[in-house]
Design goal:
The complex is a heterodimer of chains A (239) and B (115).
Chain A (H helix, E strand, L loop, with lengths): L26 H10 L1 E5 L4 E3 L7 E7 L2 E6 L5 E7 L4 E2 L1 H6 L6 E4 L3 E7 H10 L1 H27 L2 H16 E3 L5 E3 L5 H8 L3 H13 L4 E3 L2 E4 L2 H11 L1
Antiparallel strand pairs in A: 1-8, 2-7, 3-6, 3-8, 4-5, 4-7, 9-10, 10-12, 11-12
Helix pairs in contact in A: 3-4, 5-6, 5-8, 6-7
Chain B lengths: L2 E2 L8 H10 L2 E4 L3 E4 L8 E6 L2 E5 L2 E4 L5 E2 L1 H6 L6 E4 L3 E6 L1 H10 L9
Parallel strand pairs in B: 1-6
Antiparallel strand pairs in B: 2-9, 3-8, 4-7, 4-9, 5-6, 5-8
Classes of the chains: A alpha+beta (239), B alpha+beta (115).
Chain lengths: 239, 115
């Protein structure tokens, strides 16, 4: 299985340019990063790193979607985050010197750039903007985690599902000719249930409820949002 | 069932001691794919204890201990023709891209140990 020949080797050619933590470096610095990084393609289901294993460095998602999951003591997987292009993975473990705290698995064909720990720490010392961007990212991650924790206890399954759909609408929505938006990410019902912290059966039932209210359309496994505003109104009504 | 993958010369003890002083030892508690066929390794690894299984053409091989996995592929940005799977409780030394370059210049004899 050869790598795709058209993998973006240069940071300046990256389709996620402008979204990552290194993107606002000068051209010469980006060229240097391009020399040091390792670019790999991952197929759906392939793992990037495994929870509990030692950390090698930082991963930057150029294309694709990655699910981060944690395994409980009884072997159940819970999805803690979906990372998409421009996101970084493994950054916390670099600073804490602890093993990876989640397993990263490709949800679809993904292109991921890797920079080893030694190089990253060197870059942080040389370029304050890299350090600042990482701090910003860590702060946002912490905020999102706290919000998620609060949501689990305070919001209904329906609210959490609608909010997930709105999030996916924003990050993975593809406008259709008729004005609706197709959510273009391959998530199973089980994975969606895991993200919002409910049983798969409950998720399926709630999706069906939303469909009956004409808030979403289901086309096989695909989810289409006819009108984002109506969905937003529904979640507001629930509060 | 794994068999030894070709014959590579293990790194000698003196050199190994040097590497142990300079580069971090890592233990993998869980099985993981280090790289898939067609990918470039992220770092070069020296196997100290445990097992790294190499999968090529549906055959499985064991990496010889004290050999250097992935160094050439990493330096030349060349995809590997096999998959490497680290087994639980395996101990390795990890050497980054920049350091590998310096090591090969300083200790050219290590070329015989590169898988």
């Amino acid at each position: 299985m050869a790598q795709k020949k058209d993998l973006p080797q240069e940071c300046k050619d990256c389709p996620s340019r402008g979204k990552g933590i290194f993107c606002d470096l000068e051209a010469a610095e980006l060229d240097e990063i391009s020399q040091f990084k390792v670019v790999n393609q991952f197929k759906r289901g392939q793992s990037i790193f495994v929870e509990g294993n030692p950390t090698f460095g930082l991963y930057c998602i150029s294309e694709g979607n990655i699910k981060l999951s944690k395994t409980s003591e009884d072997g159940k997987d819970a999805i803690v985050r979906i990372a998409t292009k421009g996101d970084v993975l493994g950054h916390r473990s670099i600073f804490t010197n602890t093993p990876y705290n989640a397993t990263a698995t490709a949800l679809d064909d993904s292109v991921i750039c890797f920079l080893d720990k030694k190089y990253i720490l060197k870059k942080i010392q040389e370029s304050p903007s890299v350090a600042q961007n990482i701090i910003n990212k860590l702060s946002r991650d912490l905020g999102a985690s706290e919000q998620r924790l609060a949501d689990m206890s305070q919001k209904s399954v329906k609210q959490r599902l609608i909010e997930l759909l709105l999030l996916l609408h924003q990050s993975h929505g593809i406008p259709q000719d008729n004005g609706s938006v197709l959510i273009d990410i391959k998530l199973t019902r089980e994975e969606m249930a895991s993200i919002i912290g409910t049983a798969t059966e409950t998720l399926i039932r709630t999706l069906s409820d939303l469909k009956n209210l004409d808030l979403i359309t289901l086309d096989g496994k695909k989810i289409i949002i006819p009108d984002e505003k109506k969905l937003l109104e529904e979640v507001t009504l629930e509060y | 069932m794994s068999i030894a993958y070709k014959t590579y010369q293990p790194i000698d003890d003196t050199l190994l001691e040097e590497f142990l002083k300079q580069y971090p030892e890592m233990i993998f508690p869980k099985e993981a794919t280090l790289f898939y066929k067609g990918q470039i390794p992220l770092t070069a690894l020296i196997l100290l204890e445990g097992e790294i299984v190499l999968k090529k053409n549906k055959q499985f091989y064991s990496l010889t201990p004290y050999t250097l996995l992935g160094a050439n592929n990493l330096l030349q940005n060349k995809p590997c023709t096999f998959e490497a799977i680290v087994q639980p409780k395996t101990k390795v030394i990890s050497i980054d891209k920049l350091s590998i370059k310096k090591i090969l210049e300083q200790f050219p004899q290590i070329k015989n140990s590169i898988v």
